[in-house]
Amino acid sequence: MEAAMGEALRCGETEAQIAAARAIGSLNTMQKKRLAENGSITPLIMMLHAQHYDAIEASLFALLNLAFGSERNKLLIAESGAIPALLKIIKWRNESLMELSLAALLILSSCSRNKLEIASSGAIQLLVELLDSLSQNVDSNQAKFDVVSTLHNLSTSPQIIPLIVACGGAVVLIRLVYESEKSSDLVEKAMALLESLVSSSQLALNQVGERDGAIEMVVETVEEGTAACREHAAGVLLAICKSCRETYRGLILREGAMPGLLQLSIDGTWLARKKAKALLLLLREDDDNGSLSSSSSSRGKHSKNAVLKKVMRQIDRAGGTSLQMVEEMIAKLRT
């Protein structure tokens, strides 16, 4: 069966190629492997350059089917020239073809051996610009998710992170999170990428720390995001505060980070609790050698610091502290 498909793809007329490409989805894993090894990927890539909507669509679906679950096929597809062809289709901004191309690029980016080729092809600049243009479009969540996921895949190669940052990736992610529902999968993936950037790039750290509303947005995400998202958001704040506690501690406190971090230190993932605790320790006021001001504002300040210190002592104890106690402490910190 796959032999006839391969023959149609290599030698057939346009309609025969389209029919063969569409039939690839019905093949099993071994049949797809043999089809790819017998030279059928190259004609599929050539179909991407056709001025024929059905041929391009059929080819994209076929490439997605071949790439899914096969590292070898992902590599063969990239080596056969798929990446420039996919980027060209993305630039057309035909919605359905663009989304298929983004899905294909996402799958190819999951192969470690493809990452540098994708990065060197101009894809990062294109993806960042596309994400920026889509940020306020509520009907393009899948496209946005695939773009962020592709950039996140690429960011696992340390040498690619500076390129993402230089293309404005951190700033665009801030805008995207600001415009999106904090509990969404999209924001979870965006916050994971943002944490990766600020943890590896001083420029990204500065861009997030100095941008108006950015810290407030991350604090909101600590409170409203999914479990994984809250963990990444705490990681972003921790990286910012560690970079210059003197500069950022007050900014983070003024945005009301304490209640969310205290909650996270109790009911977050293991890593989220670890990050929240580390950040709370950085945010806690230093001892002031016993000198206390008599002003009411100073008394309030010392009172809240005492509450925080009490919570931190409880968190340090084996078994942590109870949710009820944290809720009581949060209520005190809010007053």
Care to describe what's here?
This protein is mostly helical and 335 residues long. The longest helix is centred in the C-terminal third of the chain and has 21 residues. The termini are far apart. It holds the Pfam family ARM_PUB. InterPro entries: ARM-like, ARM-type_fold, ARM_PUB, Armadillo. This is U-box domain-containing protein 3-like. Keywords: Repeat, Ubl conjugation pathway.
Please describe the topology of this protein.
Elements: H1 2-11, H2 14-23, H3 29-37, H4 41-48, H5 53-67, H6 71-79, H7 82-92, H8 95-109, H9 115-120, H10 123-134, H11 141-155, H12 161-166, H13 169-179, H14 185-200, H15 202-210, H16 214-224, H17 227-243, H18 245-254, H19 257-267, H20 270-283, H21 296-316, H22 323-334
Helix pairs in contact: 1-2, 1-3, 2-5, 4-5, 5-8, 7-8, 8-11, 10-11, 10-13, 11-14, 13-14, 14-15, 14-17, 16-17, 16-19, 17-18, 17-20, 19-20, 19-22, 21-22
Protein name: U-box domain-containing protein 3-like
Pfam family, one: ARM_PUB
Organism: Salvia divinorum
- Could you tell me the strand content as a percent range? under 5%
Shape: elongated
Q: Please report the total strand number as a whole number.
A: 0
Q: End-to-end distance, in Å?
A: 72 Å
Pick out its properties.
335 residues, mainly alpha, repeat, U-box domain-containing protein 3-like
Short description:
With 335 residues, this protein is mainly α. Helix content is 77%, strand content 0%. Helix 10 packs parallel to helix 13 (169-179).
